[in-house]
Design brief:
Layout lengths: L4 E10 L2 E11 L4 E5 L6 H8 L7 E6 L8 H5 L2 E4 L11 H12 L6 H15 L12 H13 L5 E5 L7 H16 L3 E5 L3 H7 L2 E6 L2 E7 H6 L3 E8 L13 E9 L2 E8 L4 H7 L4 E7 L3 H12 L1
């Protein structure tokens, strides 16, 4: 199966500054892949190389089976791109601008008429007023226009750099629905975001970038599962954490005292059976379990790496 995106040993330097240090990334067709990392990690540089806004220093890139440096307009028409720093021509109203995007990006599989109808549907879903002048739009409304132009021609691949920047929570939720619809149709999404809860809700897998290197590639659920789970026990009386440390399946244990009771927190990397057996030698007042979210898992990974 030809990958939607295949990056091999990709390097990029800006003068003496190294942005990418030999990264390898594969994005399979019909998947949503989250590209995450701190500012300056190299996410935007990578995405710009995918759409031939930047040229790599060395390495190999294939997008939908083609080299973006030689794929030309035919390849670009199969990609929907939302840059992280969106710039729109402020002289037009929204409708005229989106009509222009339709003219330059429609494909043989989507007629101009259908594409114009599609942008109006997308604009309505995202709450875009097509009669407004672009120069008078807020950052969030400009972002909505950028999303419409990226989605409108039903591209095989969407490359989205911080797509929900400036959007309110309701529009963010609608965007995530649109991403799932794209995946359900067998198309592909490669998106970066600082909002890891979005990646968690939408992505099948995650690629973590740090200082220009890929430090983790994994299914989202596997990243979360790597932290195990956390169990909170409320026990009657003063109970020490020490007997729980070192039990089978227990990574760490801490105890805080609230009046006559103890709040015991157990971080697990296996079954809680041994810890629960010991806990039942005391009076158990409450049990609460939680699994870490993606943000907690990624932050834990960064801490371990540093």
């Amino acid at each position: 199966m030809t990958a939607a995106v295949e990056i091999s040993d990709l390097h990029k330097q800006y003068g003496s500054r190294v942005a990418l240090r030999g990264i390898d990334v594969r994005v399979d067709p019909g998947t949503v892949v989250g590209f995450v990392g701190p500012n300056g990690a190299g996410k935007t540089t990578t995405m710009r190389i995918l759409v031939d806004v930047l040229r790599p220093t060395s390495g190999q890139v294939r997008v939908l089976g083609e080299d973006p440096r030689t794929g030309g307009a035919r390849l670009r028409s199969r990609i929907g791109y939302l840059p992280g720093e969106l710039r729109l021509d402020g002289r037009h109203d929204v409708a005229s601008l989106l009509d222009h995007y339709v003219e330059i990006s429609h494909t043989a599989s989507v007629s101009r008429h259908d594409a114009r109808a599609a942008w109006r549907t997308l604009a309505e879903r995202l709450g875009v007023d097509p009669t407004r002048r672009v120069r008078g739009l807020s950052k969030g409304n400009k972002q909505k226009v950028g999303l419409v132009q990226a989605f409108v021609h039903r591209p095989d691949l969407l490359v989205l750099d911080e797509p929900t920047s400036g959007l309110d929570p309701l529009v963010q939720a609608e965007f995530l629905t649109m991403v799932r619809e794209v995946r359900d149709e067998g198309r592909t999404v490669f998106l970066s975001s600082h909002v890891l809860s979005e990646i968690e809700q939408a992505a099948d897998s995650v690629v973590v970038l740090r200082e220009g290197r890929v430090v983790l590639t994994s299914a989202v659920e596997a990243v979360r599962a790597s932290l195990g789970q956390r169990v909170h026990l409320t026990l009657a009386g003063h109970v020490a954490a020490a007997p729980f440390v070192g039990l089978d399946g227990v990574r760490s244990a801490t105890a805080t005292h609230d009046g006559a009771d103890t709040r015991l927190t157990l971080d697990l990397d296996g079954t809680p059976d041994a810890a629960l057996r010991l806990a039942t030698t005391h009076t158990v007042l409450a049990v609460d379990a939680e699994r870490p979210d993606l943000e907690s898992a990624v932050m834990s990974f960064y801490t371990q790496e540093s």
